[in-house]
Amino acid sequence: MDARLNYSASQTAGKVLRPVMAAGRAVKESPLPAATQELVAIRVSQINGCAVCIDMHTKEAAAAGETPVRLNLVAVWREATVFTDAERAALALAEEGTRAADAARGVGDEVWANAAEHYDEEQLTALVILVSFMNMVNRLNVITQQPAAGDYEAGQFH
């Protein structure tokens, strides 16, 4: 599959995407646990069908020590016993935030309260920004059919 647009050749994309990617790096440096960040990035990307992001974030998570069992169960996290209560709260918030149009209400009070039990305000801020960021980059990739999954190597963009 060939990409519909070449973002690296576009002046407009360069002006917009440089600060966007800087925002993504800032979230990486936030106090939200790194494992939670990768799990959320994977789940949002699964929902949005962004193969290149799933490829990237599963490989980054594995390189950081995430287990194959947990990576393989992200899509069915509700039925899996391998995630902490805090991770489950983050995944629930990520799903409702990603499926905002489907839910017609955004993130419900119960899901928000559960996340707030496990994360402080700074971590919640990072979580909300991460969910929003991943939804944006997923859409940029899916709409323009950016590079096919499989070729990413952990650490490639660091």
Descriptive overview:
The chain is mainly alpha-helical. 30% of the residues are buried. It has 8 helices and no strands. The protein is globular, with a radius of gyration of 15 Å. Helix 2 (34-48) runs antiparallel to helix 3 (51-63), helix 2 (34-48) runs parallel beside helix 5 (85-98) and helix 5 packs across helix 8. The protein has one domain (7-142): AhpD-like (Up-down Bundle). The model has no long low-confidence stretch (mean pLDDT 93). The chain has helices spanning 11-28, 34-48, 51-63, 68-73, 85-98, 100-103, 109-118, 121-143. Helix content is 65%, strand content 0%.
Task: Quickly list its features.
65% helix; 158 residues; AhpD-like; mainly alpha; 8 helices
CATH topology (level 3) name: AhpD-like
- Termini separation (Å)? 25 Å
Tell me the helix content. 55-70%
Question: Strand-and-helix sequence, N→C?
Answer: HHHHHHHH
Low-confidence stretches: none
Rounded average pLDDT: 93
How many β-strand runs?
Answer: 0
Number of helices: 8
> Beta-strand percentage?
under 5%
**Major sheet size, sense and barrel closure:** none
CATH class value: Mainly Alpha
Q: Per the principal axes of the C-alpha atoms, what is the gross shape? A: globular
- Within CATH, the superfamily carries the name AhpD-like
GO molecular function: peroxiredoxin activity
Pfam families: CMD
Domain Carboxymuconolactone decarboxylase-like: 21-96
InterPro entries: AhpD-like, AhpD_core, CMD-like
Task: Outline the fold blueprint.
Blueprint: H1 11-28, H2 34-48, H3 51-63, H4 68-73, H5 85-98, H6 100-103, H7 109-118, H8 121-143
